[in-house]
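[READ THE FOLD]
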Amino acid sequence: MSQLFTGAGVALITPFTDKNQIDYKALETVIENQVQGGMDYLVALGTTAESTTLTSEEKQNVIQCARKNSGKLPVVVGMGGNDTQAIVNQIKKTNLQGISGLLIVTPYYNRPSQEGMFRHYCTIAKESPLPIILYNVPSRTGVNLEAETVVRLAEASDKIVAVKEASGIMSQIATIAKYTPDSFTMVSGDDVLALPTTTIGGKGLISVIANAFPAKVSKLMHLALAGNYAEATKIHFELIDLFKLIFKEGNPGGIKALMHIQGTIENELRSPLYKISDATYDEIKGAFLKLQ
């Protein structure tokens, strides 16, 4: 099996109006920008999408919007939780027609063991009609999906085809790259680590900043994957300040502020998240204007 979900993917935001409703027109624009910017696939309903605050109806509408406006780009849908059977039930009741894969975050709050997570993912893989991307983000979930467990999962099920690695632990990332099957895809979950990750076997990125700069991110990743690290590094350095700034007060507050500065969306988040401070907004604006 050839590697799936390589190259430049984007973790789509969910734009809101000042009335706390999803701004589907703005979402369509964001998606169209990704298509025109040369991105390789879309990820809807991930962390960046504030998916934990969306209703079931809103989630289905977001999926439909992504599918309708994606052109020929594959669409991945984020799902997750800390109740294995509830995730299985959610997969079964969600209309996944035209969807290419599922991004399943590690269980949060109840902090399962490595064996617990292994069984969790195996159960989901058995019931899923679609390929699965593991999503490891310890800073949010409180638990780290260790390299050895990723390798076990990659070998245990043909449905488990990739991992989005956002642990920031480069030794762990390298171990995954070394020991997983050739058909398995490891992608960076951190914009700032995407380039170095490709040098040790990473095959792409699921990006936050691509919401604002799809053409730059797609070019950076395609250059890096072609081994042209010198040119890729130039783009990496162009964006380095914004890589840091958009996460200074958390995600997606920073990327939404940047896109508001660009004039793409309203600077609105859904409670309990809130817009970033004026000081950080001004820092992001200053870094953005330097790119013009």
User: Anything to note?
Assistant: The chain has one domain: 7-227.
